[in-house]
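hey m, so remember when u said the tokens were messed up on ur end? i reran from scratch. heres the input so u can diff it against urs
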Amino acid sequence: MDDFNLSITFDVELSDKAKEIVTADEIWKFNFPDLVIYDENNIVLYCQSGIRYEEFSKEKNLGLDYNEAMEQKMYIGSGVNIIPVQREGNHVKVIYNIYTGGDSHYPKSKTLTIDMTKISISTNEQASMGEEEITLTGDWHFDVAVPEKMYNRQSVVYTQTDTTNEDYQIESATLYDTGMEITAKVQTEPLPELPEFLEHDFYDSLSEDDPLKNQDILGHISWKERQTDEYKEYYKKINGLTDITVYLTNENGEKFTLIQGPNENGSTGVNEEGILTFEGMFDLTKYNQAETVIVHFEYKNQTEEVVLKKGDE
């Protein structure tokens, strides 16, 4: 755990009753759809939706809706990559690589509480989140003590001093115990227009307390949307704009690459003005830090470099 990343490995043991439905070897996708992770101050570091947050808020008598919680930094708008890493016997290990969005930071929590009542499973390797065909129910609640070095964490900020192309800029570069977080901006082409999908528009128009506004219906609508030709063409264009390779070197020429953190291959997105934002965690840490770091970009058959200098801790 650091300011932007929280990685948790769950070891799920299937009961005899669950094994009558599915075995560990058959499982390809795992998801905890109503998972809530919060700390000793009731700050929610992860939950899958605003609806689930408001259920949590009522349970804890916090009196906060989703927007109020975001404004008061009582709810961190996190994303997640879910990676099943091991299937053995009646056990499945799955990594939840959770990451913050925007300018959010994780608090220096000392205890994390895990709450969930559902496990969604798919035997289909191609299934996306929300498309799982098996749901196991229960009541799981447990606390995790955060190691002292994680809640007493410090960081080192690097600043840009040079670039081979002014269209390539480093917005932030911060070194942590667990890696180096880089956010870069690249001038590219404007984002194509998102195709309309009437069912999604109808869902968005529903009030938060409408019984139709739930994760099962949203997952089904999103699945239908992904099957349309318009959607497939849109994402083909998006993928072309976001296909970028980034790595680091230090003054000795040592190479540092993206690590299996919150985003296994980094995170990229393009806005309507044609600004590509790249965010990634690299395997350069405080334990092998350098005075100078060069960020290398490979994008649209071009190679560019940005030079960073180390600041004070």
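this time it looks ok to me. Residues 261-265 have pLDDT under 50 and may be disordered. if urs says something different then somethings off w ur setup not the seq
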